[in-house]
Amino acid sequence: SPAVERRAAGSGGCDDGSPLGSAVTMDEEFLREFAGKSELTSALKTVRTAGGGCVHGDEAASGRDDGEIPGGLAGAARGDASIGRVGPAGAHPSAAASRVTGVVVVAADGDGEDGDEDGSPAHAAALERDRAAAARLGGVGGAGHARSSPGRGSPFPSNDPVDGPESPSQLSNHAGGPGVTLNQSPSDLSNQPAASTSPGAGANSLGLSRRNTHGGSSFTLAAEDNPTPQSVPPPTFGDQGNIGEKHVLVMVGLPARGKTHMAKRLCQYLRFFHGARTQVFNVGSYRRKMMGKTKADSEFFRGNGENDALRKSFARAALKDLVDFLFQEDLGSNLEQRASDSGRVAIFDATNTTKERREWIRSQLDGLPLKLLFIESVCTDPDIIDRNIWHVKVNNEDYTTEADKKRAYDDFKKRIENYEAVYQPIDEEHLSFIKLINCGKKVEINNIHGFLCGRIVQFLTNMHATHQTIYLTRHGQSEYNYQGKIGGDSGLSMMGEKYALALAEYCVDHLTRDPTTGEPRPCRLWTSSLQRTILTARHIPHPKVKPVACTGFSTTKHERNKDWIQMSPRVLRNLDEIYAGVCDGMTYDEIEANYPEEFALRNENKLGYRYPRGESYLDVISRLDPLIQELESYQEPVLIVGHQGVLRLIYAYFTGVDRTEACNASIPLNTVIKLTPKTHDCDEEREVLYVPTREDLGAIVEGDE
Fold first, then answer.
1. What pTM value is reported for the model?
2. Distance CA 249, CA 260 (A)
């Protein structure tokens, strides 16, 4: 078979000055013959990468990840500079393997003999010895996909490749680097110290160093081995937006149809869960700003040339700012700082009730690189319209000085009549639009294409005009809370059990009763799948009630006759706490002592930091997306018994807090937080149900669990 010629390097040796170094050449015929053999592919890549330069016995490597000693590339290097051979199935009897971050290193002991290649008993015995040596070094002697189990000694898997199996980033090309050297037996190899992975080390024996890219920890090649690295990791679902695309959403509909409420909720949803840059441009706000102290009563909205021109000037000013927002440079965007755009969504909030006005908007934006979507809200239910007028319109800035709220209500009704006289429902086939009838009871879509537009449709179909109430509470103090540990699946402490009883009493007396009539009202209960939340909610009773007082909406005959199981518990794994990976069950002091670099990285970027083999806040945002959409669809009060990290995100979403600030929101133990999202803000109330004693507290963890 073709051979590898090995010549004595003499005093020249390797570039690193090693007296055992030599020059290695390999003819192309040999490479072509064995290039297709999977067990040799990585080894050949190593030789090619070396460029015919110095190759130590500790650098002949295989990219196989199954723990087998590679038979294709024997340890042919010899200490006496004799000629060696590489055969298709042979291995030196004294070859040994060491696995360091996914690289199998083969070394010869320098006895000057070629390896057995005939499958003889001696060869089999040699392989068995090699497997045993590899096992002592952290490899696996035998077939199968070897994976090191996570442990506290290192937060990183010792054999996880950077770019996948048999990739160049797995292979070491350093001549004379530390690791397995010549003239060592398997027993010597088993006592070799492991490559340093401490933060102070900077790089290990293969030139690999640690970094945390977008919240995740990994190994990366030293700069000289990866001169043109991928500098920006792919976005996670939670911050991808719709990369590089710009959208304009145009609201359509008569006044008091919930357009502004939809626009505000949609703006927060796209910003929080998709990382898009969003802003609402409300033409009514421009009118109030440009008219100053002059109030616009119902007569201002009656169709005449002068008022129409004035109202169009307000729309033109809002549209100009909208275009500026879409195409301005935003240095505050984390992704744009790295030459990427997370996508922008501008919402044009006005009545836009005529075809002429909608065509004018389309023509103004025509030719710009963006997607245009019209959203029409149609409502024929007089109860919903009246409630919207009283709750939103009568209390807006147009009527802040009115002493007689009834007069303001009547004036707004006349404004609606003026709009109804010219109203033209959207039916233009060439436009992309979604029509929501009676709060999503019926939905029509036309020309809807693209990922984000599909998400917008899905979100809007779950929305309604009712201001439902959401109750958030952490589980009672757990045993791990008491010990200062994060994560885990421990039960409740004594204080936690006391809170569970207090929570059940609160639900019976307050949450499940209508605050006005005192009658029972249907309520929902969510918990995570971890036992500390399930145990906290287990005392809450579940009687059957009739859903008549469920919401302001009229119920059908079928709904009135159907029993509702009060606070029926729903266990959701999406509500589980942030998984801390290898740090699960540790205290913060232990994390800082064992993984100081990880501890520092988390403090630098709490939102994007991902625990080794664990999760980040962005990961949790991704799995909360479907639950938030379901919450938006509910009209009954919901109690969520959850965990601090997860509840922080839910709290931030409904209160309008930016997700970069959500990681530090205060969600204390023994407290129920009552949220009532409204169009322009969110009402918040907090009630402490149990005041702990000093003996109760222990070492409560107030950071992520």
1. 0.66
2. 12
